[in-house]
Amino acid sequence: MIAMIAIAIIALLAGGGLGLALHKFFNVRTVRHAREEAQEIIAEVKEAIELKSLEERERIQELEMELWTKVEPDMLRSEARIEELQELADEKKSKADQIIQEEKKKLQEREADVKKQEQALRSQESELNKLREAQKTLNKDLVQKLTERLSTSAEDFKNQLKEQMEEETRRRSARLAQEFEENTKEHAEQKAKKILSLVIDRFARPYCPERGIGAVNFPDAHVRKLFCDPAGNNIKALQDACGCDIIVEDGMDMVGVAGFDPVRRELTRRTLERIFKEKKNINPDFIRKIAENQKKELFKNIKHDGDALAKELKLEGLNAEVRQMMGSLRYRYSFTQNQYFHCGEVGWLAGLMAAELGLNIKKARRVGMLHDIGKSMDHVMEGGHAVIGADFIAARGEAPDVVHAVKAHHFDEQPSTDHAFLVIAADAVSGARPGARRSTIESYNQKVSELQDIARSFPGVTDCFVLSGGRECRVLVNGRKIDDTQALELSKKIAARIEEECNYPGQIKVVVVRETVATEQTRKELA
After folding, report:
1. pTM passes above 0.70
2. More confident call, 439 vs 19
3. Taking the domains of the chain in order of start, what are their residue ranges?
4. Measured between alpha carbons, how far is 133 from 140 in angstroms, rounded to an integer?
């Protein structure tokens, strides 16, 4: 039994080993077949890859050939163009090299010439030095001989010669200066007239026709009755608010305004006109309210006028107070000429004359505009308006030459600059033009009387006549007491007295006429 079991176990073990051997055999065979198949697959893949690579290379070659056929003409043309440019560059380079060689050769020749000239110059300098030494020797000998002959020293002789040359130079300078002065005097008036003519022709600014602040009339009797209340409260309120005296005469429809300040007079006029438009409720409170409103509007207009004038003349950097004072001249009149427009005219005329003479145009306009600024405050300050205006602008940063021109335009100080004389001339042109200024009958009669009194105060004067509206003073003198030379001197003296004692616009011509009276009687007797 046990043997059977053992045989069975042995048989099982032998079968198992045989199975394992067979299994291993089959596994090895299977692996070998798999490897062979894998090798075959790999070989097939490699063949496919090689075929694909060959196809790709052939395609690439075909594409290269196709592209080359497309660009080959352009490449050939480019190569040909490059060869041409290379040939051209080589040709230019050869020419440039040739030019450089030629220039180097010329430069070498010039350097050789310069060296020759330097050698010649050195030889000439040495000869010149020799000649100078010889000249010095001759000069010493000549000076020694002259001093021996003149019995004086060399230093004294030099001083005498120097004095003679200085004297000759002074005489020649004086003669040239005299000739220049005579020539200037001869042609100065003609040139000045030409410049004035050009300036007046170029002056295109419209003239101002205003003749002073207009009067204010009562619109009707009812308004007069309301305004002129029995207690006078309305007039008093207006006087206190505006600072001017109000004059209302019986039987007159006009309201009189008296005051030294032109701005206050204008304020009073505007207030009156505004009050008279209201035919009801005229009372002191209403008047004070109207005056306050008109004052604000008037100051606004003054500021606008000052800024407008500065802008018109293209002046920059003017102080605000200076512009304000220029605007207040809008209500200031001199011999019925509006001073605001007069300053504008003088500014333009001075600028035009400066342009003709080659001077600073903006500075000429500046001094021309500012020359009468003192008239806006001469009613509250003592002194001439030229000095007042000059001090005012000097305190507000104006340049010293501008201040001088303003102060000197009426000779309060002697003018010493070109612009000062320009302002004097422009002021005279603006004030003396036809229609610019007009005198009242009282001022005209006073002017005539002053001129006649001055002329008749000189000995030898027999009579005096004022002609041409006060612009000519014709003086008759005794021909036995005054000769021609004395008549000339007398005209100068009378003109000087008029300048000192009279205040007048423009110029006054003084004409002295020698009067000779001859009488004789007949002695024939009647038969």
Report:
1. no
2. 19
3. 210-312, 314-438, 441-515
4. 11
